[in-house]
């Protein structure tokens, strides 16, 4: 195992300002992009790690009315990780950055316990199905199709988070 401080890496990735990419050129600082980066760091440190994907409803988040009325798909997927620590799989979710504390559930991780999943879970997929969903979500056409349906909502969501951070 490499000597990598997983807690430090978790915090570094968690504290990248969450932002849903609005084009193929944008950096992916959403749950998917953050967890792809964290996955690599944890694997590099010699741990078993796997993707987990669940569904959630945007309407289950405490969104302002002006966001709720923008047309979008209510059901969405969310990705996070499971890391094998000892002989148990632990949930590790670095989605929301520290500057969103008080607005969304920002996680701290001690390197050995579960974190909470950053969204209210509707349905969870197996690690195998989760890996396939992650792979499909990164395909160019999937991104283009998603942005056609949800791009205006994502843009407004990103702007809402940014306004909160400035306070």
Brief characterization of the structure:
This protein has about 170 residues and is α+β, with helices and mostly antiparallel strands. The protein is built from five helices and four strands. About 40% of the residues lie in helices and about 15% in strands.
Which characteristics define this entry?
5 helices; 167 residues; alpha+beta; four-stranded antiparallel β-sheet; single chain
Can you describe this structure?
The chain has 167 residues and is an alpha+beta fold. It has one domain (6-166). The chain is built from five helices and four strands; from the N terminus they run ααβαβββαα. Strands 3-2-1-4 form a four-stranded antiparallel sheet. Helix 1 (6-14) runs antiparallel to helix 2 (31-44). It is globular and about 45 Å long. The protein starts with 5 loop residues before the first helix and ends with a helix. The model has no long low-confidence stretch (mean pLDDT 95).
């Amino acid at each position: 195992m490499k000597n990598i401080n997983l807690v430090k890496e978790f915090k570094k990735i968690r504290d990248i300002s969450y932002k849903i990419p609005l084009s193929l050129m944008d950096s992916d600082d959403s749950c998917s992009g953050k967890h792809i980066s964290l996955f690599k760091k944890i694997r590099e440190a010699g741990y078993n790690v796997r993707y987990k994907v669940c569904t959630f409803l945007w309407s289950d988040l405490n969104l302002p009315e002006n966001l709720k009325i923008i047309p979008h798909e209510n059901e969405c997927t969310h990705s996070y990780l499971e890391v094998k620590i000892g002989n148990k799989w632990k949930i590790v979710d670095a989605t929301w950055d520290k500057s969103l504390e008080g607005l969304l559930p920002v996680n701290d991780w001690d390197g050995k316990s579960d974190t909470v999943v950053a969204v209210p879970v509707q349905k969870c997929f197996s690690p195998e199905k989760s890996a396939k969903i992650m792979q499909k979500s990164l395909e160019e056409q999937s991104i283009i199709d998603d942005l056609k349906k949800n791009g205006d909502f994502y843009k407004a969501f990103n702007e809402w988070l940014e306004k909160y951070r400035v306070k």
